[in-house]
Write a structure and sequence with these properties.
Chain lengths: 335, 265
């Protein structure tokens, strides 16, 4: 009786700690939103909020893919370039007369192929760190992007292709001009899919195990190479999908799209509490990281703070977030 | 020497196993026999080939020459997955646990309990927790909760979890590499008692250890490797600590005095 009681007490204690660790970051989001609604009159309007969601849909997908890779203690520097290559490939395919539904598949497929190449290069060539392979892919995909597009933007994308990135469900009955962006639903579907995979399937647990202790994963009979190839393929596929959303939002495929986007994605993942050392972090935290960066940019814009200051601030926040991670790790090695 | 052949056949055998790494010979014509339910100690100096032999037996390395026989059949193992499938488990010296994951997930890592839904291979964490707890109870291992992350456990508890993982799926043979080397003294006894519990449950165990206390407390038989070859073996009842220490140093028939002299020189 007593032992059962103490067991359940420590169980609930454990769960509380873990809950706070997982969702504490959302308190930061909440505090930021409250602060911003006091600081700016326009912030808490439906129009502005949906705008934030739309602007950050692309960044969210890149960050989700990056998150998956970082959980395995890896890194993917090529997502920005893959996004651009997916965009121009889709546009070229559309110009070549492919039906719109086939054009929709081009971006994600190009992304998956690039991601799979990252994964295969990493595991077959046994390169010392994913940094190398994906740095290579950053250049290869960007170069291919400029080659395919001739270095100039390609406009004239069909409305069907633009639908996912541009369309909104009309919410003007609540507030004039407001709408629920379809891109938000795309992001939501990816979040749910990724959450289920990571938390409720063996594959997801293997991904965490590889990040925690690759040796342990290997001797447990997990095919580490195969899992890694999948992880980089999914990351690339999400970058391709992100490209599709960006085409929709901007209406053109521009070869400079996503320059430096990989660094924003890494920043969002780290701010969201994932450990750079792998094995730690949650999908919800990752999205919170994207929203924190989005809110920060949006709020500072509304308050007319220069973009230069915004960048400096984000820099400080990245360092602060990782310092927090370091402190937490030190605390967990207290034994 | 082989009185054992009169009773049950060995569960695991290495026959004339050699292992080369390039120009280096790690093992040369090594034989090993393990009886069902037996605890065998393997001793030897650093570089004697103990760890290599264990990695060959657990499928991590393929032997360059010779064969591995399990339950009377020659087996080819490509990876630890193959050895685990037939019931040979290894507990590594560095424990090979994922510290960022809970105890129950470590126990079932690579062999998760599943509850497919619409073709999706979903995990059954509830069953996994219960089965993990039952298994720990069976081995008399006490932890606060199977939801604790492994990194929050003491060294002895981690070793216990590693052993629990090795025995969770009806293992027939468990190989332990220096199971007590990294432990605080008060935790060593618990791990050795755990080996006794495994023996009661008819699991055959191979222990690699430098510690004579471990060998003489837990083992039925001891064999020594020296420079990659079989050097000597004996039942525990027919040998002494000093003789075994002599084997490790490559000398036979040592008396107490000689063994100590050998150590001083």
């Amino acid at each position: 009786m007593t032992t059962a009681a103490t067991t359940s007490a420590t169980d609930s204690g454990l769960r509380q700690t873990r809950l706070l660790e997982t969702y504490g970051i959302w308190l930061v989001v909440l505090v930021m939103m409250i602060a911003l609604s006091f600081l700016s009159e326009t912030f808490f309007s439906l129009l502005n909020l949906t705008n934030i969601l739309k602007q950050n849909a692309t960044a969210s997908l890149l960050a989700l893919g990056m998150f998956l890779v970082i959980v395995t203690a890896g890194i993917d520097l090529s997502v920005g370039s893959i996004l651009a290559l997916a965009m121009v490939s889709s546009a070229v395919a559309a110009q070549a007369g492919l039906p719109w539904w086939a054009v929709l598949l081009v971006g994600p497929l190009v992304g998956m192929v690039c991601g799979a190449l990252n994964g295969l290069g990493l595991t077959i060539l046994r390169l010392p760190h994913p940094f190398i392979m994906t740095l290579g892919m950053l250049n290869i995909a960007r170069g291919a992007t400029n080659l395919v597009s001739g270095g100039v933007p390609i406009a004239g994308i069909d409305p069907q292709v633009r639908y996912l990135g541009q369309a909104e469900f009309d919410l003007s009955f609540i507030q004039d001009g407001a709408g629920l962006p379809v891109s938000l639903l795309v992001v939501a579907a990816c979040v749910i899919g990724l959450w289920v995979m990571l938390n409720a399937t063996p594959m997801g647990r293997h991904i965490y195990a590889i990040g925690g202790n690759p040796q342990s994963a290997r001797v447990s009979g997990i095919n580490v190479d195969r899992v890694l190839v999948w992880v980089y393929t999914i990351c690339g596929g999400l970058a391709g999908l992100a490209g599709l959303l960006l085409i929709g939002r901007t209406g053109s495929a521009f070869p400079n799209a996503g320059l430096g986007a990989e660094l924003d994605a890494i920043a969002a993942v780290i701010i969201g509490g994932a450990s750079f050392f792998g094995g730690r972090g949650t999908v919800a935290g990752c999205i919170a990281g994207v929203i924190i960066m989005g809110l920060l940019r949006n709020g500072l814009n509304l308050m007319d703070v220069s973009v230069f200051w915004q960048q400096i601030l984000i820099g400080f926040i990245i360092v602060g977030a990782v310092y927090f991670d370091v402190v937490r790790r030190r605390a967990s090695f207290r034994i | 020497m082989h009185a054992s052949t009169t009773s049950a056949p060995p569960i695991l055998q290495a026959r004339d196993v050699s292992k080369f790494f390039g120009a280096i010979t790690a093992l040369r014509g090594v034989n090993l026999q393990l009886m069902p339910g037996e605890v065998l100690g393997v001793v030897g100096d650093n570089g004697a080939g103990k760890s290599t032999l264990m990695k060959v037996l657990s499928g991590l390395f393929a032997p360059s020459e010779g064969e591995i026989v399990f339950e009377g059949r020659t087996i080819q193992m490509q990876s630890p997955r193959d050895s685990r499938r037939i019931g040979i488990e290894m507990v590594y010296q560095d424990l090979a646990l994922a510290g960022n994951m809970p105890i129950h997930e470590n126990i079932f890592l690579g062999r998760e309990v599943q509850k497919p839904l619409l073709g999706l291979p979903l995990l059954n964490k509830k069953a996994q927790r219960e089965m993990a707890q039952e298994h720990l109870n069976r081995l008399k291992i006490h932890v606060k909760s199977v939801d604790q992350n492994v990194e929050d456990l003491s060294g002895g508890q981690r070793q216990a979890v590693a052993i629990a993982r090795a025995t969770a799926f009806d293992a027939k043979v468990v190989i332990m590499d220096e199971p007590t080397a990294a432990l605080a003294i008060k935790e060593v006894g618990k791990v050795l008692d755990l080996i006794h519990i495994l023996k009661e449950q008819k699991v055959a165990v191979i222990i690699i250890s430098h510690r004579m206390d471990d060998i003489f407390y837990a083992c039925d038989r001891v064999m020594a490797l020296y420079q990659g070859t079989n050097f000597a073996e004996s039942s525990i009842a027919n040998t002494s600590r000093n003789e075994v220490i002599g084997w490790i140093m490559g000398t036979k028939g040592n008396t107490t005095a000689l063994a100590h002299d050998g150590m001083v020189q």
